[in-house]
Amino acid sequence: MSVVRHQAWRRWLVVACGVALLCGLPAIIAALPVPASSLTAAALRARILASAGVPYQGYAESSVDLGLPDLPDLGDVSTLLDGITDQEAWYRSPGQWRADVVTSAGETDTYQTSRGTFLWDYSSNLYTQVLGTEPVRLPRAADLLPPELARRLLGYASPADHLSRLPSQRVAGVAAAGLRLVPADPQTTVGAIDIWADPASGLPVEVAIIGRASIQPILVARFLDLSQSRPSLATVTPSPALGTGFTTTVLPDISGILNGFGPLLPGRIAGMDRVAAPRGLADVAAYGTGFSRFAVLPLPYGEGQRALNAAISAGAGGVNLPGGTAALIETPLLTVLLAQAQSGGPVYLLTGTVTASLLVRAASDLLTIAQEQP
Known about the structure:
By secondary structure, this protein is an alpha+beta fold.
């Protein structure tokens, strides 16, 4: 009996050790030394920018703390830019992917397919096919996935911006090489962008954005679980179950909505040249380069007045301009200014990761030019 009892204890001891090892395996792996990568900063940047064709599937978390005030009709965007967003992603190619936002209340899925974009809302059990192109749109959760976010940010960089290597670190099981980008233009609110990516494939696995006046990152997006394997086509293809609602929606003619509300926007304001805008949007303009680029658009009178009043009610600071007034929303990263001439006319919306002083100068130039035009 004692021999049997001793063997039983031995078996249970082996089981207990195995369970303990499995439970502690993630911590053990995370504590292992991360091999350094010999890639230069420029080579790592190039590899990241070329990673759009790298497939993956995983679970990502993004945390954003912009400190934006609550504005009407922007609940989803406000939550996205001020809070934590968890999402599962399956990515086959730029034209075939799926991202599911997971919340305590349910789930919202976005599918990108050859037949357009599909949205599925758990609460209403409804699939919506979005028809048409989107020259201008509000941010969506998939924009915060590390690969998409990193490539977009590196695409904004100018030749004057400084690139350097960061120590490697392990992210979602990947021994990721680190890259830091520091914008050279003093008129941007972006202080530094840190990116970690797989040195072999270039796939970004973590992104952190630090404001110029901040110590801690304002935005962090990272994978918690990741596999660089190609998901099946069925996984990224919408397949409404029996009883699921289905509808289609056509994107409105944005050019018809935004164009024609005020004088033509000038070719240069605040010392910044105008850059090309999306096709068909003559009255939506972008000025500047790199991270000091900002957007300008005149809002229809009624919408503009509501936006201006809502910003003031939400605590936006008042700004006196020559011949007009403005409401300023200033965060550590994003700056928004709504300006209108004292004589009335359109409300101009100016926004970007730029300093408040730059937007104030730009708004002053806009109002002055608008008053001079017949």
